[in-house]
Amino acid sequence: MRGRKGRLLNDEILRVEGLRKEFPGVVALDGVDFTLRAGEVHVLLGENGAGKSTLIKMLSGAYHPDGGRILVDGAPTEIRTASDAQRLGIATIYQEFNLVPQLTVGENLALGRPPRRFGFVDTGRMHEQAGELLRRVGVDVDPRTPVARLGIARMQMVEIAKALGLNARVLIMDEPTAVLTTTEVERLFGIVRQLRDQGVAIVFITHHLEEIPQIGDRVTVLRDGSSVAEVPATTPENELVRLMVGRPIDQQYPREPAAPGGPLLQVRGLRREGEFTDVSFEVRAGEVVGLAGLVGAGRTEVARSIFGADAYDSGEVLVNGRPLARGDVHAAMEAGLGLVPEDRKGQGLVLGADVGENLGLVTLRRASRGGFVDRQGQRRAAAEVARQLGVRMSGLGQEVRTLSGGNQQKIVIGKWLLAKASVLILDEPTRGVDVGAKVEIYQLINSLTASGHAVLMISSDLPEILGMSDRVLVMARGRLVGELAAGEATQDSVMALAVTEVEDARVH
Amino acid sequence: MLVSTNVLQRKPPGRKSPAATWLGENGALVALVVLAVALSLLSGDFLTVTNLLNVGVQAAVTAILAFGATFVIITGGIDLSVGSVAALSAIVLAWTATDAGLPWPLATVIALGVGLACGLVNAALIAYGKLPPFIATLAMLGVARGLALVISQGSPIAMPEAVSHLGDTIGDYLPVPVVVMLIMGLITAVILSRTYTGRAMYAIGGNEEAARLSGINVNRQKLITYALAGLFAAVAGIVLASRLASAQPQAAAGYELDAIAAVVIGGASLSGGKGRAFGTFVGALILAVLRNGLNLLSVSAFWQQVVIGVVIALAVLLDTLRRRGTN
Amino acid sequence: MLVSTNVLQRKPPGRKSPAATWLGENGALVALVVLAVALSLLSGDFLTVTNLLNVGVQAAVTAILAFGATFVIITGGIDLSVGSVAALSAIVLAWTATDAGLPWPLATVIALGVGLACGLVNAALIAYGKLPPFIATLAMLGVARGLALVISQGSPIAMPEAVSHLGDTIGDYLPVPVVVMLIMGLITAVILSRTYTGRAMYAIGGNEEAARLSGINVNRQKLITYALAGLFAAVAGIVLASRLASAQPQAAAGYELDAIAAVVIGGASLSGGKGRAFGTFVGALILAVLRNGLNLLSVSAFWQQVVIGVVIALAVLLDTLRRRGTN
Amino acid sequence: GSGSSSEGSGAAAGDIKLGMSVSTLNNPYFVQLRKGAEDEAKKQGVALTVTDAQNDASQQVNQIQNFASQSMKAIIINPVDSDAAGPAVKAAERSKIPVIAVDRVVNGATVAQTVASDNVAGGKLAAQELAKQMGEKGKVAVLQGVPGTSASRDRGQGFTEGIKAYPDIQVVAQQPADFDRTKGLDVMTNLVQSNPGITGVFAENDEMALGAIKALGAKAGKEVKIVGFDGTPDGLKAIEAGTLNASIAQQPQLLGQQAVQGAVKAAKGEKIEATVAVPVKAVNKDNVAEFAGS
Ligand SMILES: Nc1ncnc2c1ncn2[C@@H]1O[C@H](COP(=O)(O)OP(=O)(O)OP(=O)(O)O)[C@@H](O)[C@H]1O
Ligand SMILES: Nc1ncnc2c1ncn2[C@@H]1O[C@H](COP(=O)(O)OP(=O)(O)OP(=O)(O)O)[C@@H](O)[C@H]1O
Ligand SMILES: O[C@@H]1[C@H](O)[C@H](O)CO[C@H]1O
Ligand SMILES: [Mg+2]
Ligand SMILES: [Mg+2]
């Protein structure tokens, strides 16, 4: 169809038969079949916890199957370690970042296989090679920057560059677009198409259904740990949803605007040297305000500053008309602010604690009387939110670390939903969440605003911003560059604002 | 055949028996039981009431220190100063009660206050000065020990009679140190599992940033954490001095490693977020049983250190292997 | 517009002046300089060539142990056994050379092998037995010390003449321990910054899972790491015994805390992923200068401990405050 | 640090700086030794700096080096270990600074003077004293000092030799309690458990003996006879109270005093005796009054 010919293309590289994987308390995979050909993009689709990540982790040597087999080039193969996978030409971009924050971008790109000279690591060449890789994926970072200084979007791009550096013939990407904005997604797709045309086989996981026809060739659908269908990527969206969820979803963005009340959050002239300046806006009771922008526009920084997680240099924040102390999360919470951070692993979750503990964290203080915590009450409330969000878990006692990515995200949101903050700031709230659960989250947002609360929503998922916001603010290069009412906001109008200002700045 | 089918039967997920779950969480207990059984087989003297009470008494000081250390370790910190703080508190008690002539209840309160203060200084350095806990408490290790020596001028000071009873027995048998240990353990368990501060400690140790962004006042909770460790150290110091009827400036030197070992043997992780009072208690008992048992067996002093090392490693190994087996 | 765009330009990383960057990374050095200046003002004896060489000699053993500990700490581990391993290695050297009558070069090789072996046992327990490093090396602390006592039957053993020269000076002035320390430091720096193993250590300490998934054989690298620590401990032990011309079974007891302190003062983090040879060197010098200076100033023995504690806290505080100022 | 000996003869007492490195101050015995030294220094009007080597031979070497840097006129060393002190003393010798050894000897180097009590003899004396108290028969447990220290070795050796003279006395257990009172208590508790028939205890110092007394409770001094070593104030009190039967009294204050006297003379370049033997003496209920005052 796309003029891909030759023996190499369309050869079956990888085959998975009846794969099975059990964890204590959970059967994650129970009979998965899956084939992968050279020169195709094979999409894995399934609800949160369906077993997508578990499947690919067995291809990359991170986990070992309890049953079934894996064939590489037709031969049954055991992939015991990551280096086995590397030898077989399999490179993986995991859903959760696998970068070493203390090391530089360059070192991370060469992790485990640095260029050597006379037995010593050749740092010069290492950073040179890193520079090339970074140019290829189009991120403008100095390879000598420590990874800890990057935002998550850039980390994702570094992960992509790292996998590209392996020159693999099988490239597995677990939700690479979850944190990217349209621009980066386009760039990534360009790279993926190029690789595909060179005969690389690509496994692609995403919860953004609109991406499937753009990039995919075939789709394998997983449900409850089993493969239930293999369909072409051109299959209509609602059919894919039905295969995946078992029922159709009638409305993806069920926003029910409420009549806006008085301003609950007012931000005036907020500024932090080198990050953002002159940020002023307000959010009214009953409103959902979307905050759009490109990666690095500074949305996260603004949100964290408002919440007191970081300090700012000048300006002021008022909640319910009362000014808020700077850099004091505790005070912000007392005043009724809440923040769902974008980095769930680093800032959102206590990974080693269980679901119940995590869901109860924000309300811990409120649930205490005379220093003692009402743990039963806490558990009850946690069980209720977990049910509402459809968290797939073996129970409230499951360690959050062992939840699937999307289910972890539900926990981060869930603990703030319990807190009933009067102004809730959501930073990439539905990152990695499946279509069905997204609707549940939107419903909960609706009920918050209906009861007079307000929501500020940062998202790199433009359809989500457009679908759920009553007003859209656009940021670029650390400044607010425009505001669009729900009616006038479209993909194009938002992107135009997000990009022009950057061009402007470059001109000067 | 019974054997092989048993082996093949996969444990149905989530259907572990409560007993198995409980054991899984208390791996150190298995090690303790194995150790105790072995010792009772090897030495007829081990399993007598008197000896077991002796073990209790000998575990008491380490256990109390370790309870305090449990709070700190759960938050992901470490406290190297507990031994020195124990000595300083005891010296202050003895000195204020004898040389300064204060009534003993007041002296006791002052001594507890000293422990608390040392903990608060540790916490201030860590929370506000952003010192690594290792450094802050290492500094306090030196400072508290130095002050104990300065105040006592290097010589032991007799403990006031009234306080010394803490080293005696209630009735003919029940040693007070054992009672104090149990009470402190209970307090630790309640704080950890039931109070806001306790739950906050786990959150801070699990992910400090997430705890902060969830509205926990991390600095304040750290103050409480280290203050508790200091207070517990003071109690341990007073119990120790009462047993000897004299406060020694060099008492409890090096006990910090034992205390931390007890906590870790009890299942806590030095990277934070994990740990329980009961585990710590078992950890302290393992250390005490080991020392007591080797003495009963008249193992030569030099070999004792070797054997203790090997058994500690084996005890924890047993635990990790067993855990891997069930997972 | 120009202004605001300029303001908004994100600080490109690496555009701080090289001097500022270097200082920022070597905060402990500032503390060392401040300390040295203060001491030269307070005591005329401090800033003499002989005394500075003394400081070097007095830092040597701690520094060598600390270099070895640096590897371990960078991987996120801890090694409490280095002091005991140092003593054991020295005892083995002296014993094989005297009682067993082996030629001293062979005895030296065996002693180094003992250090290496202890490190490998630590590593095996940690990597394959999944013991927490604290427990594995605490066990080794006891075992190695016990073996040192068993072999020596508790008494010091004279070092062979030839090896004892390690404690002398080259020519009239240059002390051999200082030379050994510098060489070991250089080796550490090269391993850490230039070799595959060194870089792997940082990766493991920074994110062990990421390291594993990038194809690094984490277990093998841990073996190398702890083996290096053991080897360095053996070298430290031999240098120490040479200075005393006698191997002491109780030598270097408690030095593990000093070694770890030197590493942490030097800027490493006990949670792993950070640390440098030069920082560790400075950390060891700070400790040595402090002890030397307080002796020169005739500070009373009891107060010394207090002052050392306070100065360590201040030195690291200075560093963290300065760092907060620039960031 | 040279030339001190040449100008030594003319030096007034006020110019004399002395350094003293004590093995450990973790023991009242050495605190007393230091007191004796400091009192004598004050009396003579010389400056005395005392450092604590914390039982670490190499820290002691460092301290001796530092004394040399400070141009001390004479150095007093109370060795952590007799052998390990050798190189340090040699280094001081090279800087022409006279060294006085106190309480424990220095091997492998010549010192200007050794002021000490004989620990081997003390051990023997302890054996005799304990045997006498026990009526020359019964079972004995020994609490040993820090393994590897010369004090422990010598006393143990003296005691073993001394007790051989009493065929009806058996040593049934030996355990180190590191010269430490707390350890003395725990070790004794355990020993009694495994050896119920013990009627005699030799503790290699009073600190451990005091711990053992706590462990033995009412039996201390009565059914079980206890002999300690040092004659520290707490030890003498215990003898008065009848819980400790005897102690081999050293005279640490006298040791310290003699050491300073020797050091001052050496600093002035005067001739001094190679050894000053300070007698050890068995203290028991009968003669404790003579010691209590000192
Ligand atoms: N280490 C583990 N221990 C226990 N359960 C686990 C572990 N890893 C995964 N699971 C469980 O296996 C199931 C499948 O998880 P997986 O991560 O494969 O889902 P996924 O399809 O990738 O979901 P998502 O879209 O949310 O990323 C989940 O129920 C999860 O909780
Ligand atoms: N051009 C740049 N040069 C250097 N650092 C940058 C640049 N852009 C962003 N960063 C850094 O990366 C982080 C930004 O993270 P991220 O990529 O998630 O974007 P963001 O600022 O959170 O904005 P948004 O939420 O709008 O994407 C910030 O910490 C910032 O310091
Ligand atoms: O003589 C002393 C004392 O007896 C002390 O108790 C231990 O060390 C010895 O050198
Ligand atoms: Mg997943
Ligand atoms: Mg962002």
TrEMBL record, chain A:
Transmembrane segments: none annotated. Keywords: ATP-binding, Cell membrane, Membrane, Nucleotide-binding, Repeat, Translocase, Transport. Its main location: membrane. Residues 14-249, 259-502 form the ABC transporter domain. It is found in: Cell membrane. GO terms for cellular component: plasma membrane. It comes from the Bacteria. The keyword Repeat applies. Pfam families: ABC_tran. The keyword Lipid metabolism does not apply. It is a peripheral membrane protein. One of its GO terms (molecular function) is ATP binding. PANTHER family: CARBOHYDRATE TRANSPORT ATP-BINDING PROTEIN MG119-RELATED, GALACTOFURANOSE TRANSPORTER ATP-BINDING PROTEIN YTFR. This is ABC transporter ATP-binding protein.
Automatic annotation (TrEMBL), chains B, C:
GO terms for cellular component: plasma membrane. CDD domains: TM_PBP1_transp_AraH_like (cd06579). Keywords: Cell inner membrane, Cell membrane, Membrane, Transmembrane, Transmembrane helix, Transport. The chain crosses the membrane at residues 20-43, 55-73, 80-98, 104-127, 134-153, 173-192, 223-245, 302-321. The keyword Transcription regulation does not apply. Its main location: membrane. This is D-ribose transport system permease protein. It holds the Pfam family BPD_transp_2. It is found in: Cell membrane. It is a multi-pass membrane protein. InterPro entries: ABC_transp_permease (IPR001851). It comes from Streptosporangium roseum (strain ATCC 12428 / DSM 43021 / JCM 3005 / KCTC 9067 / NCIMB 10171 / NRRL 2505 / NI 9100). One of its GO terms (molecular function) is transmembrane transporter activity.
